[in-house]
Design a protein that fits this description.
Layout (H helix, E strand, L loop, with lengths): L11 H5 L1 H14 L4 H4 L5 H16 L6 H14 L5
């Protein structure tokens, strides 16, 4: 469980904030759910958008390494750092 205050999808707080509601709606359309990494930045929807844009640029842009390899490296580094997500 995170020790960072989060605004959960479907909560009254999320429904009341149009920016956050849009971020969560986009997350569901993209991935079928709102992942923890997105919820952990829920207090700052602009920061969430910037973080997701950076992720998409790194993972989806053309490059020497195929996306599958980039994703694998991300998982290995996350495990090495003890990151649960």
């Amino acid at each position: 469980m995170a020790h960072i205050r989060q605004i959960l999808p479907g909560s009254p707080e999320a429904a009341a904030d149009p920016d956050l509601r849009q971020v969560y709606d986009q997350a569901v359309r993209r991935a079928g759910r709102v992942w923890n990494i997105v919820r952990l930045t829920s207090l700052g929807p602009r920061a969430t958008r910037a973080s997701l844009a950076l992720y998409q640029e790194v993972m989806l842009s053309p490059g020497v390494l195929p996306r599958r390899v980039r994703e694998t490296l991300a998982v290995v580094v996350s495990q090495a750092n003890g990151c649960a997500y």
